[in-house]
UniProtKB/TrEMBL annotation:
Pfam short name (any one): DLH
Record protein name field: Carboxymethylenebutenolidase
Annotated GO MF terms: hydrolase activity
InterPro entries xref list: AB_hydrolase_fold, Dienelactn_hydro, Dienelactone_hydrolase-like
Dienelactone hydrolase domain location: 16-231
Transmembrane spans: none
């Protein structure tokens, strides 16, 4: 596996940077990895590398580039975590989706065994992964503890591709009422699978953080990998061996 920094042309003009993790063999498929409020930090790069080791081409676009390029924040440092929330308040979701569409197009230029591209997002990225299932042609989408999804349920009828929502029982930023609204609003959509993890809080899969919970994180990752193999394809499904 190798990694590199690449430049992507924005649909509205300008360009932004992204971290690209490349598997050692031809990729099965590609994944747009969508940042938390903390930017393209070490955790996001490590997550990209981990999925590249599973055979996927993984791109992590810098969605804060219009506000402050190159943001890398640490969730364990309060001042940095607070800055993440400040950036979140200034972040324009519609522009972010446009950048994610550009990221999809960028990945589709690369050869892969299935030609498919999915998305995987955490926190802010979890909300954006939900919207990717609605507003883009991404082939499969995974949302971890996405925020404000309950405010976008009216768009759920437009979901065209498979979607997983990983939700934590004790989420500080998605109230029990919001979680109930999400489950109620999506329960009859056969394309949507919701997993809830008891006794864990927001960020439970963020390795190295105080929120990290190994058992729940590993279960969610196993489910995500199985979902991607089913919906994006894998070497086994294609009759190819690495």
């Amino acid at each position: 596996m190798t990694n590199q920094n690449v430049t992507i042309s924005a649909l509205s003009g300008g360009s932004f940077n992204a971290y690209l993790a490349v598997p050692s063999t031809q990729p099965y498929a590609a994944i747009v990895l969508i940042q938390e409020i903390l930017g393209v930090n070490q955790n996001m790069r490590q997550t990209a590398d981990d999925y590249a080791k599973e055979g996927y081409l993984v791109l992590v676009p810098d969605l804060y580039w219009r506000l402050e390029p190159g943001v890398q924040l640490d969730s364990e440092v309060k001042a940095q975590f607070d800055k993440g929330f400040e950036l979140l308040q200034a972040f324009d979701v519609d522009s972010g989706i446009e950048d994610l569409k550009a990221s999809l197009s960028f990945l589709r230029q690369y050869p892969s065994r299935t030609g498919k591209v999915g998305s995987l997002g955490f926190c802010l990225g979890g909300k954006l992964a939900y919207l990717m299932a609605i507003r883009t042609d991404a082939d499969a989408n995974v949302s971890y503890y996405g925020v404000d999804i309950e405010k976008n349920l009216a768009e759920a009828t437009k979901i065209q591709k498979p979607l997983i929502l990983h939700m934590d029982e004790n989420d500080e930023y998605v109230s029990p009422t919001a979680q109930a609204s999400i489950q109620q609003g999506l329960k009859n959509n056969p394309l949507v699978t919701i997993y809830r993890y008891e006794g864990v809080s927001h960020g439970f899969s963020r390795a190295g953080s105080s929120a990290y919970r190994k058992e729940a994180a590993e279960l969610a990752r196993d489910r995500t990998l199985a979902f991607f193999k089913q919906n994006l394809g894998s070497a086994v499904m294609q009759g190819v061996t690495s």
